[in-house]
Specification:
single chain, about 400 residues, alpha/beta, 13 helices
Amino acid sequence: MSAVPADAAADAETAFGGLVVETELAPIHRLGSGALSAVELQLRGPEGSSLHDATALSEAARAMHQKSELDRIKWRRAGRQAESAVPHLVTVDLDSLDELGALGDRGGPTTVALITEQALIAAPARTLRTIAAARTAGMLVAVDGVGARAQALALLPLVEPDVIITSPALIARAADASTARIAHAVAAYIESSSAVVIAQGVDSELHRRRALGLAAEYGMGALYPTVGSTGDAAQADSDVEPISLRPRRAVPGGPELTPFALASEGRRRTSSFKRLLVSMSKLLETNAVGAGPETIVLGTFQRAEHFTPTSRVRWAQLAEQVAYTGVYGVGIDPYVDSAVHHAPLDPNDPIVDEWNVVVLGPHFACVLAALDMHTDAADLDREFRYVLSYDRGTVIRCAHSILARFEG
């Protein structure tokens, strides 16, 4: 990325392991006009080292569990920046917000909370709560690395970010079938949101044109000339088009409501034997595979004995073809097996009375939510009332309802 020294860059600080880091401002330009739209405050390691690149430094710090230390330096420096005609963005990991005290700082900088798929997988409930708190505090939520990993794309419908940051690798190569799939997924999301797409790695005119083809409006990279200091970032009206960023409201749907309660609101409830529900669940699993590798699939099976060996085989095969699979039930031990994430349910949780399958992908969303009527019958002849919904908003709320029950 092209970047310039920030006003406070001379005040080099040491981070983890005594590494000297400096603060710089990376300009963000509108891809169509070339106008300056924002600047991002970044930290870089010593010039000439492998950690001089801001992305490489962040990834190294994250791998060493030291990212919050970098974010603390960045947050402190952000308070020193002078006002200018374009927004100053400060990107910090979601997990750093509490430690920084940023969630209660309403007078802080324009903060962009970065969500990684690792955070959501490791601690779903905590991550969703922090996202809601960040939005309540007026922060922007971003998914980073889109185009590098299918899991990052899978976060879009679940997290509903305000900012999508694409991976430099996405425009470094000629378009192929994978690029087309990513373009479809991004287009599907931004059609129903006010999110902006920022392309990283715009180092040439070819990169700029490729980024435009992927629906990116803004870009960062070596193609653009550096701006001056913070005070004169905007040179002329014709060269400045401030980026418009609107934080999204927090998505309702925590553990206080079950998927069946959410899905059945205003919808007809149908009575059926479990035998039909099993077949309907299998069809949803098949649809999930067809929905693409960016899909999330969640299932609540009431109790461990209902997640049979046959089901285990099916879900293991499913997990090989989608981004994330999670199964939940009373007596299911918390572990990962064949990429399927297992987690227990509290026996007193009302969700134990439900059989739920949630499929959430870029182009397909469905929830099958069924309530056990506790009839005295053989397992497959047990009677349920069920609701089937393809409404994306409902499916997202049901996914939140399930994931919000698990701390990780």
